[in-house]
């Protein structure tokens, strides 16, 4: 906590908005990724399926290793995980940060519940879009109850297949999520959506062999989310200075994020 206070204070002293990502544990299912997990235990997930499709993890010795098989959370454990997000948000405020951005994108834990390419649960956190979004909304509610909506944001990537986080209907998933955010009693600070230019290992779209019509569908979905969300809209993924300025000028986003 003391070290985080120093970080938060250093940002604020220069007039910079300081917001940490908050997430619980590591990416989907973590040679072997257990080395990064508390007590060397299996990473938690919505599923017990191991990540596939050639993804690898950078090990402490700079070699590449396999993501290890995860442990699917028991239904009764989930409220405790939600509470960890709440505590992380509270600690961020105590450390002097301006707000928090919940990381619900790129194959991290929240995204593992959202996407049906990963989430194979049969309880109230799996199956329908409503059920798969339940964990994300519970996390969001807990955090906003703790620190307020004006200090809370969320990052989502319904369009992105990063880390094997695929969904059979990203349009329906993205629109449902945005509608739920619009229905919140207290507006969020912003919604952060990753553009489809962001691909495996952060490659830009021009480096990707994806078919042009598929890229266009993803761009249209991003625009649709922008049009549907009733709040501040942040975009990121593959921008440079000129394209970022152009995107804001064209009304495609209110803000652009780098890094």
Automatic annotation (TrEMBL):
InterPro entries: Aldolase_TIM (IPR013785), OxRdtase_FMN_N (IPR001155), Oye-like (IPR045247)
Cofactor(s) the protein needs: FMN
Protein keywords: Flavoprotein, FMN, NADP
Domain NADH:flavin oxidoreductase/NADH oxidase N-terminal: start-end pairs: 66-259
One of the Pfam families matching this protein, by short name: Oxidored_FMN
GO molecular function: FMN binding; oxidoreductase activity
Keyword NADP listed: yes
SUPFAM superfamilies the UniProt entry points to: FMN-linked oxidoreductases
Coiled coil: none
Family per similarity comment: Belongs to the NADH:flavin oxidoreductase/NADH oxidase family.
PANTHER family: 12-OXOPHYTODIENOATE REDUCTASE 3, NADH OXIDOREDUCTASE-RELATED
Protein name: NADH:flavin oxidoreductase/NADH oxidase N-terminal domain-containing protein
Organism: Taxus chinensis
